[in-house]
Amino acid sequence: MNEEYTQRGIGPLFSASPEARLVIVGQAPGRRAEQTCLFWNDPSGDRLREWLGVTREQFYSSPYLAQLPMDFYFPGKGPGGDLPPRRGFAEKWHPPLLAAMPKVETIILVGSYSQRYYLGRCCKQTLTDTVRSFREYLPGYLPLVHPSPRNYAWLMKNPWFEQDVLPVLREIAARLLEL
Fold first, then answer.
1. CA distances from 148 to 72, 74, 105, 153 (A)
2. Helix H segments across 103-161?
3. Three-state DSSP state, 155
4. Which tens digit of pLDDT belongs to each residue from 59-97?
5. Where in the chain are the domains?
6. CB within 8 A of 158, min separation 6: which ones?
7. Contact (Cβ atoms closer than 8 angstroms) between residue 39 and residue 13
8. The pairing of beta strand 77-78 with beta strand 81-82
9. Cα separation, 90 vs 69, whole angstroms
10. At a CB cut-off of 8 Å and minimum separation 6, what does 78 contact?
11. What CATH number was assigned to the domain covering residues 12-176?
12. pTM value?
């Protein structure tokens, strides 16, 4: 499944610790993350850290925070941006990794791919409706819109996100990461 990446010397981008209490499940690493071998190493990551209320150092060094993207490799570019995560990847790798992290209390679901995978039929009709209904999924899951700069218009159109969701996200992060 990952032979092409291995042959090019590219390792998987994820982090997991038996001490993890909070897991971030995003789409897949981007090109810059792949090049620097560091997940969320782009403007989306800057915004995500701001939303969480954590420093870059806390984000990358806390044993209480795990990163399990839906694919651990950059899937490539498509006509409308990055390609989606490969099918079957999360199904193969997430269950054993989560089983090795027994202290996880909350999984942050960034974007529609992770929400559809983890929430299944409990997802609402749209991503906006799923994120707006975030309290229904707590404490196990917290769905978020992707922090990409491309979503600036969505954020402007949905001010409730910053007012209602971000304070809850920051409280969960502060408690579980012992900030």
1. 18, 16, 25, 11
2. 112-119, 127-132, 152-157, 160
3. helix
4. 999 999 999 999 999 998 888 788 999 999 999 999 999
5. 12-176
6. 128, 132, 145
7. yes
8. antiparallel
9. 8
10. none
11. 3.40.470.10
12. 0.95
Over the chain (179 residues), the average pLDDT of each successive run of 10 is 87 96 95 91 96 97 97 90 91 98 98 97 97 98 95 96 98 95
**Contact by Cβ (8 Å): 105, 77:** no
Place of tokens 């990952």: 2
Element housing 98 (H / E): helix 89-99
Strands (E), the chain: 22-25, 65-67, 77-78, 81-82, 106-110, 141-144
Query: In the numeric block, which tokens belong to residue 96?
Result: 């054993």
pLDDT at 138: 98
Q: Is the separation of the CB atoms in 106 and 98 below 8 Å?
A: no
**Distance in angstroms (rounded) separating the CA atoms of residues 153 and 135:** 23
SS3 per residue for 78-91: ECCEECCCCCCHHH
Cis peptide before 85 (omega within 30 of 0): no
Tokens 């579980």 found at: 176
Q: How far apart are CA 77 and CA 81, in angstroms?
A: 6
